[in-house]
Hints:
Blueprint: E1 2-7, H1 11-27, E2 32-37, H2 40-48, E3 55-58, H3 67-77, E4 82-87, H4 93-96, E5 103-106, H5 110-128, E6 132-136, E7 141-145, E8 149-155, E9 158-163, E10 166-170, H6 174-181, E11 186-190, E12 193-196, E13 200-204, E14 207-210, E15 215-217, H7 223-236
Parallel strand pairs: 1-2, 1-3, 3-4, 4-5
Antiparallel strand pairs: 6-7, 8-9, 8-12, 9-10, 11-12, 13-14, 14-15
Amino acid sequence: xxxxxxxxxxxxxxxxxxxxxxxxxxxxxxxxxxxxxxxxxxxxxxxxxxxxxxxxxxxxxxxxxxxxxxxxxxxxxxxxxxxxxxxxxxxxxxxxxxxxxxxxxxxxxxxxxxxxxxxxxxxxxxxxxxxxxxxxxxxxxxxxxxxxxxxxxxxxxxxxxxxxxxxxxxxxxxxxxxxxxxxxxxxxxxxxxxxxxxxxxxxxxxxxxxxxxxxxxxxxxxxxxxxxxxxxxxxxxxxx
Length: 240
């Protein structure tokens, strides 16, 4: 399920962008959830309440706060979502890329450029999310994309997998679950926690903060190793 937020104070363009997005996602045969906002304060309230979206379609010039500052607020909470600016003004294009915007589309071209952008983005996302963790029980089957997993947590004889869609429980040791993942995206930060390095945004005083707001303890014996792996992971992706 791909979650999409659309923010535009102009009702006509808000409706148009939503309609184009719905058509594009239908043609791509992808499950999605779309939430429109016509006011910045309502959007920021949901952002503060940790409502997460995979894609943000943002206007630039709006009352209260412009879209560039909205993008900066998003990046303070989440490093990985896709931000796409849709605007009547071309003056802000360079500044938009300072917040790592995926695309900058003028409203005069949205009929052509927005579907094309979503198609290219979804093609890229599908390649990134090829790796999945499969959970099978006697009565259920579920696939969780590696890129959707925030962390794993030990709970008695079980491991809780915390991801974008919620939580799943598997009867395994944490070590077994980490071996199943077999990916350098994941590192054991404490005997009870495994973190996805993709979502690491800070490590201070033996606490690892993730982009979803979770704070995981880092044991003292693992602290230096975790720090090194976080830095190397993000350096390899050009983030530091």
